[in-house]
Amino acid sequence: MSAEPGDSPAAPLLDPSCTCTALRRAARAATASYDAALAPAGLRVTQFAILRILARLGPLPVSRLAEEAALDRSTMGRNLDPLERRGLVELNPDAQDGRARVAALTGAGEGAIAAALPHWRAVEARLGARLAPGALAALVAALAAQT
């Protein structure tokens, strides 16, 4: 890989045209917006997403839940711990594989989703209003085609 004239090792870190850096900054800003909006419900956006996945798909092995949430297994464990402590999810041994655990939404978890939904919808509307129609879908499709 050859450097362009004038490039320095620090240039990629400072280059505002770096797509990866721009996407990471945008993702952090979006996460911060969702986390702030969901704070009154006592949830972070990743936790809310986990609860919604369990509501949609039912009980799941933790590894499958991690896959559905696009998280690695250890990150999923760190996100499930506070949800379990609060009684929003329960973790039980997998009937087929006693070494694995299955996560299930509780009634309190369903209540947490209901309490958080208005906050989530508000931030969805706010962020959606900032995007051109179809822009997010086009970006997701373009990036998904790369993998």
Automatic annotation (TrEMBL):
PROSITE patterns: HTH_MARR_1, HTH_MARR_2. It comes from the Bacteria. Residues 16-147 form the HTH marR-type domain. One of its GO terms (molecular function) is DNA binding. The keyword DNA-binding applies. SMART domains: HTH_MARR. InterPro entries: ArsR-like_HTH (IPR011991), HTH_MarR-typ (IPR000835), MarR/SlyA-like (IPR039422), Tscrpt_reg_MarR-type_CS (IPR023187), WH-like_DNA-bd_sf (IPR036388), WH_DNA-bd_sf (IPR036390). Pfam families: MarR. One of its GO terms (biological process) is response to stress. The keyword Plastid does not apply. Keywords: DNA-binding, Transcription, Transcription regulation. CDD domains: HTH_ARSR (cd00090). This is MarR family transcriptional regulator.
